[in-house]
Write a structure and sequence with these properties.
single chain, 566 residues, alpha+beta, Butyryl-CoA Dehydrogenase, subunit A, domain 3, Butyryl-CoA Dehydrogenase, subunit A, domain 2, Four Helix Bundle (Hemerythrin (Met), subunit A), 3 domains, seven-stranded mixed sheet, two-stranded antiparallel sheet, 11 strands, 11% strand, globular
């Protein structure tokens, strides 16, 4: 039986990044919890050993039980009866096992019953869970909704709800409505107050992942007569109070173990979370950033499974007297799959470390005033996290889909059959580039970091790092790609037309992403020789992609934009 953590040395490589020491020291407040909790770490080495041991538990559970249940869960799926969602039998077993192993509320503070993990090792657990069962990660991973309660709810709400999550109760975020998909400003679920101040929710939510959860975060219109985001507030709904029924479960292409629900709210009692009117403009933005990081982790987990399934089949399948991996076309395909996997994972954990840094300073700021240097560092990492989150979700999910596609291609006709896992993971992968904001919306979020120079400044910081002589050629190629990128950005900016910039946005964001991931893999290769192959393969792939986009922009004139309009 495999352990999905210990069988993947790349995970320990990323867990042991140099920035982790500062992250851990900030998270543990210089290890002050050791005086209150006998299981709290006393120093950095103790904390890292703790993460390692917990991730080994995650890996063991995923490599055995959860992975073994995945096919049965996919066949049975979730169902709806008497206004409630019914999990597949395997899902019930999986959730019970995670509760008993203490793997719920991982990132929550110890005083609420959590493990006090930084985001990075928690995201690593999500990566592992996704490899075992992509749909189950949606249920297990929604524990990160507790972060919104921790950040914005009052102390009484934190004390009542967060321990329940740490004990294993499930969560959901109820945002989307039949007439409000990605345009959350159009949300119309109505929130009204009784004379005694009690809030009541009425309306319909649709496409709600794990919609029959124990604790819901609900976006609702609290301000009478408003039609935009300024009239929306965030609420906490407790299933114990009743008032919400599941009208139907969506019949989906993939992630079938994760019930996607249509919910009807009828005078459901709820509590205001935070301040009125900030539901969309502050709380949902924070919630979505966490969710997008989770989908980036989910994408990497699927990419990992796709690569491993393709590699194993290519080594085993014989054609014309030899294993098909010996054919150059198949060997190239698998090498590119591994490079895309390693690139997207490098970007995921760079992003998670940046998120850790700024969120930790935000949390410390609730306890004491930050120094000027700390405030500057928080602002720096906040900007970088804001820039890399849509890139990690957007490009990671696209690579996930490509790897799932290529996994089936390696299997040939067999991959089209339900006898192999690649058929399931292909269906599961498709949603990653759609939910929590499509790839196109990730580009909308990312493009300002092209035009304001955030990506260029980050690339320059990577370029300033020294590399071994044998890696210098890769660095030189990345420098040449950067010149192409700068020239392309300048050319688009010179047109000075918003529609033209929007049209070229995807190309510029992808160019930046190719270069950023190229440098991240170069840094991995600098620290660990096992990444040299992927760094080299990805360097060539990135070079081709950057040149393609640069040529398109250089040879495109604004008047040609008319041909691309419906």
């Amino acid at each position: 039986m495999a352990n999905f953590y210990t069988d993947n040395p790349d995970l320990k490589h990323h867990l042991n990044h140099p920035l982790m020491q500062k992250i851990v020291e900030l998270k543990e407040r210089n290890f002050s919890d050791a005086e209150k909790f006998d299981y709290a770490p006393r120093n950095f080495e103790d904390a890292m050993d703790n993460y390692d041991k917990v991730l080994e538990i995650v890996g063991d559970l995923c490599g055995g039980l959860i992975a073994e249940n995945a096919e049965g869960v996919d066949h049975q799926g979730a169902s709806c009866a008497d206004g409630h969602a019914i999990y597949a039998d395997g899902t019930v077993v999986n959730l019970d096992a995670c509760r008993k192993a203490g793997l719920m509320g991982m990132a929550m503070p110890r005083r609420f019953g959590g493990l006090n993990f930084p985001i990075t090792p928690y995201i690593m657990a999500a990566d592992i869970v996704s490899r075992a069962d992509t749909g189950f990660e949606n249920l297990w991973g929604l524990q990160d909704c507790a972060e919104t309660i921790y950040e914005f709810a009052d102390e009484d709400q934190k004390a009542r709800f967060i321990p329940r999550v740490c004990e294993g109760e499930t969560m959901s975020m109820d945002l989307t409505e039949p007439d409000a998909g990605s345009d959350l400003q159009s949300v119309m679920l109505k929130a009204t107050q009784d004379e005694d101040g009690t809030w009541r929710l009425n309306g319909v939510k649709r496409f709600i992942t794990n919609g029959d959860s124990d604790i819901h975060l609900v976006l609702a219109r609290s301000e009478e007569g408003t039609k935009d985001g300024r009239g929306l507030s965030m609420f906490i709904y407790d299933k114990r109070n009743g008032g919400v029924t599941v009208r139907r479960i969506e019949n989906k292409m993939g992630i079938k173990g994760s019930p996607t629900c249509e919910l009807v709210y009828k005078n459901a009692k709820a509590e205001l979370c935070g301040n009125r009117r900030l539901g969309l403009i502050k709380y949902v933005m924070a919630l979505m950033n966490g969710a997008r990081l989770g989908i980036a982790a989910q994408s990497v987990g699927v990419s990992e499974l796709a690569y491993r399934e393709a590699l194993a089949y290519a080594k085993d399948r014989k054609q014309f007297g030899k294993a098909i991996i010996e054919f150059p076309a198949v060997a190239e395909l698998i090498s590119v799959m591994k490079a895309k996997l390693d690139a997207s994972r490098a970007l995921l954990y760079e992003c998670s470390r940046f998120v850790d840094m700024y969120k930790l300073y935000e949390d410390i700021a609730k306890e004491r005033s930050l120094t000027a240097d700390e405030r500057a560092e928080m602002k720096h990492y906040s900007k970088l996290a804001d820039a890399l989150t849509p890139m990690a979700k957007g490009m990671g999910s696209e690579y996930c889909n490509q790897n799932a596609y290529d996994c089936i291609q390696v299997h040939g006709g067999s991959g089209f059959m339900k006898d192999y896992a690649c058929e399931r993971l292909y269906r599961d992968a498709r949603i990653t580039s759609i939910y929590e904001g499509t790839t196109q919306l990730q580009v909308v979020a990312a493009i300002r970091h092209v035009t304001t120079g955030t990506y260029k400044a980050l690339i320059d910081s990577y370029a300033a790092q020294e590399v071994k002589p044998e890696l210098q050629a890769l660095k030189d190629n990345l420098a040449a790609m950067t010149e192409q990128y700068v020239k392309a950005v300048d050319a688009v900016a010179a047109v000075n037309d918003t529609a033209y910039t929007d049209f070229m946005a995807r190309r510029m964001v992808e160019m930046a992403g190719n270069i950023v991931m190229g440098y991240l893999l170069l840094a991995d290769a600098q620290r660990n020789d096992s990444f040299v192959k992927s760094a080299t393969v990805y360097n060539k792939l990135a070079q081709a992609e950057v040149t393609k986009h640069a040529d398109f922009i250089a040879n495109f004139t604004p008047d040609q934009l008319a041909y691309y309009k419906a």
